Amino acid sequence: MTESVLTQRLTLNNGVSMPRVGLGVWKASNTDADHAVTQAIQHGYRLIDTAKQYGNQAGVGAGIRTGLLKTGLNRKDLFVTTKVYNGDQGYDSTLRAFDQTLKQLQLHYVDLYLIHWPVDGHYIDTWRALEQLYRNGQVRAIGVSNFDSDRLNDLLDKTTVTPVINQMEFNPLNQEKDLRQTMQLAGIQLEAWSPLGGGAALNNPVVTRLAAKYHRSAAQIILRWDYQENIITIPKSVHEQRIVENSQLADFTLAPEDVVALRNLDQEKRGLWYDDFAWHNPTNPQAMKDFVSEWDDTATYQK
Q: Which residue intervals define the domain NADP-dependent oxidoreductase in the entry (predicted)?
């Protein structure tokens, strides 16, 4: 029997091992996140990724608890990631926010804690707070998300603990090739958010051609490509059938020429970047403020 990709792990630069494929819950309500996490754990997922910014940590925590009860697993069997909210950044505020995060998740520790975005003027102090949480044993590993090369090098120059992860928007249309070289030199693992790239990537003619060739879905082609490129990936779905399908990647392998064909799709096309946020571009009237996104239903969610 072919071993599931859900059991496969990569060792991070601090010696902690992390599952290579997990579940993301961006834009999922608390109720949907609760159900998706429960189903994912029952179907073999061990990596769960959330963030305060998503407004669904309470639902994720409930799903973890239910999933563990239904499977007989223990907390240590899971790898849970969450992130520092933009509006909480700073040393003391990050430490306070972490305590609230643990309460929402109903956990005693987090496996991986990330700076969600490099908020101008705050991310160094935020990182020092993460270093303190790491030294205290409250998190098993710390990392960053959405850090370009300049900000990543700035962080490395001014702090003592090297991030284990940089979680980036990554898919066939946005491959961050220059940044990946910087990360490789520092021993930082890439993790992909939005790995499927939405309709633009899923409907790309190269992807659909390969889906027909291998008799797989377009999503499975992209996720298998991530796997072969040694990129940790967290596709989001709240539908049980897709959650299962996204993990069925072990019984086929993309030929070298097909891996190259997908690499050649790079357009450096980001869906979300610094100018989209008020902390970087306050003059943009459309820029997002520091608030939990509109799909937050923490106030009304009850398990």
A: 22-265
**CB contact set of 117 (below 8 Å; sequence gap of 6+):** 86, 145, 146, 274, 277, 279
Task: Decide if 54 is catalytic.
Answer: yes
pLDDT at position 301 is 77
How far is residue 287's CA from residue 290's CA, in Å, rounded to a whole number?
10
pLDDT in tens, 34-58: 999 999 999 999 999 999 999 999 9
**The pTM is what?**
0.96
Residue 295: the pLDDT is 60
Binding site per annotation, positions for substrate: 116
Q: What is the pLDDT of residue 293?
A: 65
| Numbered residues of the known binding site | 116
Distance CA 98, CA 76 (A): 19
In the CATH scheme, what is the code of domain 5-276?
3.20.20.100
Query: Residue 228: in which H helix or E strand, if any?
Result: helix 218-228
* Under 8 Å between Cβ of 173 and 200: yes
Instruction: Compute, in degrees rounded to 10, the torsion defined by CA atoms 155, 105, 246, 167.
Output: -10
Phi, psi dihedral angles at 62 (to 5 degrees): -65, -40
CA dihedral 103, 36, 229, 151 (to 10 degrees): -40
Q: What is the pLDDT of residues 266-298, one digit of tens each?
A: 999 899 999 999 999 999 988 988 777 656 676
